[in-house]
Amino acid sequence: MVRSRDKDEYPSITIAKSDAEEPIEPLQLGARLKEIRTEFGFTLEDASKRTGLARSTLSKIENEQISPTFQALQKLAAGLQIDIPQLFKPPKKMAAAGRRDLTVVDGGKAHPTTTYEHELLATQLSNKKMMPFKSRIRARGFSDFPDWVRHDGEEFLLVLEGSVCLFTEFYEPVEMAVGDSVYYDATMGHMLTSTSEQDAQILWVTAK
Prior knowledge:
208 residues; 5 helices; 434 Repressor (Amino-terminal Domain); globular; three-stranded antiparallel beta sheet; alpha+beta
């Protein structure tokens, strides 16, 4: 006859788990790469041209369908002008009360693309809930874009100089002049072109 054990004789998994300070989060390289690309305002096509990696390869990395080789990581870091450690999810930090970051005129971080010339603002703050930047709109027509621009979050834009035409996937194109603003879901396909003689300038704020 096999004697049944009392539950106290078994190792206590519950106690072992309670002693752990915090579970280790799995590495999310794909999500981190997409986050960096989005913050810089790069499309997959832009990132492909900068890194030398195929657009399909970048898409597969972002969707966790493949793991990049070390050589691919080097190309990503060089093309995006970041350090390799930045491709890995930064550790959680204690929220600070009273943060601020002053950006003087023309003091932002430049990130030009084929269609936009971005100036990233408030670049010293990490873990921001929104990303503000000014952009000069180089594009002059719908055909200047290889595809719709889509990314997570919501977006607000305010026209500072010139005039623009905002194309969105589910609405008719709309002309916007200095002082006009719009708020939209950034997962909806969108793109912006200058309609003035000089490149238009806008303020863009992307919220996660």
